[in-house]
């Protein structure tokens, strides 16, 4: 199809029919690299067409059929020379515009749209205010629009999901310009963006359940009380982060998941009490300046099951009162100041703790003897069923006596320990049923089935996986 430059009258047959393609519902053009002109009869030849896809036709100049009253899905991708208006319809469901700057973004004739995706539009500076006319719109995706500066008010739509990615010129975004039906916001790679929430917007976000912000410049304030149904909060690489108490206590009864990563604020963004009685998972990673965890975790986060603190070298201790009594999974890595005070953690008091992950960090290495200290001093509860050892660059071996009190241990994982080469002479615990070894080049050949020097120490384990291969 590469040699075709024109789709002309012959495309419609011998002319015997006044309405060709009377029953055609799907039409798809792709990778016609020399195609320039599409001759349109204008005789309602596409009156029953429901789906039109034009993909990778970079030289196509002519317009699209204007009379497509039945189209449900229209997809135009990588057609940079195309100039066209959107054909009117009352049944449009999905529209995808990717790399086609010449397509007029007029929404008057497609008010039935449910899903709209706009991407790779380098000259797009703004979305027309008429966007609010798409009253049935439920999902809006905007990607790779480097000139986009502003975002319109779309309060009248039925929008449920909003995704904005890689729009580096986008300056501001106020939650108050969004409809109350919205339950998911994902904004990634918008480094100039100021995400603002004000008290006037308190009643505008009653449906929001998922909020994900990655590389979004400045996040001035995020009072969780403004999002009463928020279940998941994911924030990464936002230069400043403040989670204030707002009106009294910062209570969020719906919040179940929080992940904060690479938010290198000079102030403690998490020190204030976070009251989330149903929070199950709390992960903090790569926050070099963070010094404190939320106050009162033991009482304000009673449902917490999983806590992960990774590459936060300035955190020195858990908050006063310790950790919630029922948490099950703990991951600690790259937190030297916190690990130096490991004897104060009191993990032996948590019979519900079943999975522990310990590892070296991104900014500094742990001392060789820290792992042995955890084990030999019985700092871990005997109820532990899963132990993961990660990123310990100088660890060479582990001692059998260190494991003896972990009589319930069923799963052991050793990941990225390049100097690790020998397992205990006595072998591993009889209770182990699963062993995982990844990126341990000295240990791998020694664990070869029936031939490796370490094989007799692990032969009793039913399931063994080394570098994602079951042996």
Give a concise summary:
The protein is mainly beta and 471 residues long.
Q: What percent of the residues sit in helical stretches (DSSP H or I)?
A: under 10%
DSSP, total strands: 27
Strand portion, in percent? 15-25%
* CA-based shape: elongated
Radius of gyration, taken over Cα atoms and rounded to an integer in Å: 29 Å
Distance between the termini: 49 Å
Uncertain segments of ≥5 residues (pLDDT<50)?
245-249
User: Mean pLDDT, nearest integer?
Assistant: 84
Number of helices: 4
Q: Report the sheet with the most strands, covering strand number, pairing sense and barrel closure.
A: 20 strands, mixed
Structural class designation = mainly beta
Provide the descriptors you would attach to this structure in a database record.
471 residues, mainly beta, 20-stranded mixed beta sheet, three-stranded parallel beta sheet, 4 helices, elongated
């Amino acid at each position: 199809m590469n040699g075709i430059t024109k789709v002309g009258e012959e495309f419609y047959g011998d002319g015997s029919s006044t309405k060709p393609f009377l029953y055609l519902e799907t039409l798809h053009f792709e990778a016609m690299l020399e195609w320039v002109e599409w001759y349109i009869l204008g005789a309602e030849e596409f009156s029953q067409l429901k789906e039109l896809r034009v993909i990778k036709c970079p030289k196509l100049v002519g317009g699209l059929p204007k009379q497509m009253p039945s189209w449900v899905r229209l997809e135009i991708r990588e057609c940079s020379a195309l100039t066209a208006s959107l054909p009117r319809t009352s049944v449009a469901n999905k529209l995808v515009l990717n790399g086609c700057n010449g397509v007029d973004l007029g929404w008057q004739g497609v008010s039935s749209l449910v899903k709209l995706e706009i991407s790779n539009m380098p000259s797009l500076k703004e979305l027309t205010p008429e966007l609010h006319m798409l009253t049935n719109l439920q999902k809006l995706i905007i990607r790779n629009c480097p000139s986009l500066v502003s975002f319109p008010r779309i309060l009248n739509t039925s929008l449920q999901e909003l995704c904005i990615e890689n729009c580096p010129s986008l300056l501001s975004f106020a939650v108050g310009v969004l409809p109350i039906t919205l339950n998911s916001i994902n904004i990634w790679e918008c480094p100039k963006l100021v995400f603002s929430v004000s008290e006037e917007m308190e009643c505008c976000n009653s449906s929001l359940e998922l909020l994900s912000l990655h590389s979004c410049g400045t996040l001035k304030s995020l009072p969780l009380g403004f999002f009463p149904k928020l279940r998941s909060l994911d924030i990464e690489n936002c230069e400043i982060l403040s989670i204030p108490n707002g009106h009294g206590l910062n209570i969020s009864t719906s919040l179940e998941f929080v992940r904060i990563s690479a938010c290198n604020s000079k102030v403690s963004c998490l020190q204030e009490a976070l009251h989330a009685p149903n929070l199950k998972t709390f992960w903090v990673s790569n926050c070099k300046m963070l010094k404190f965890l939320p106050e009162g975790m033991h009482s304000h986060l009673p449902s917490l099951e999983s806590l992960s603190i990774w590459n936060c070298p300035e955190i020195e201790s858990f908050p006063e009162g310790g950790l919630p009594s029922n948490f099950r999974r703990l991951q600690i890595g790259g937190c030297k100041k916190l690990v130096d005070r490991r004897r104060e953690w009191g993990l032996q008091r948590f019979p519900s703790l079943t999975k522990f992950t310990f590892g070296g960090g991104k900014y500094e290495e742990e001392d060789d003897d820290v792992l042995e200290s955890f084990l030999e001093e019985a700092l871990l509860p005997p109820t532990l069923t899963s132990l993961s050892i990660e990123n310990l660059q100088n660890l060479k071996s582990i001692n059998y006596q260190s494991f003896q009190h972990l009589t319930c241990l069923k799963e052991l994982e050793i990941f990225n320990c390049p100097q690790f080469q020998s397992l205990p002479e006595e072998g591993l615990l009889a209770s182990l049923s699963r062993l995982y070894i990844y990126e341990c080049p000295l240990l791998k050949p020694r664990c070869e089935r029936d031939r490796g020097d370490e094989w007799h120490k692990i032969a009793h384990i039913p399931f063994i996986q080394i570098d994602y291969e079951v042996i």
